[in-house]
Amino acid sequence: MAVLPLPNHPLSLITEALSAQQWQPIDDIYQYTAKHAEYMGIPQPWMLLYSKAAAERAKKIITKHYSSDVNRFFP
Questions:
Q1: Mean pLDDT across the chain, nearest whole number?
Q2: What are the boundaries of each domain within the chain?
């Protein structure tokens, strides 16, 4: 069973960004979004990068190891 990050945890930014689809194009391959989080009382700026190729690789790995949870990560 996969455990999703807790709310306000930096890793939850990835799930939030994928769901919100608020990506800005860098070029034909990459997109980014900027997020802010606070972890253990420390404010942290984050820049998340996305590429379709990397997402496909991640989906393949998650499907292989956590087939029942793949739709949680890739709706």
A1: 77
A2: 12-73
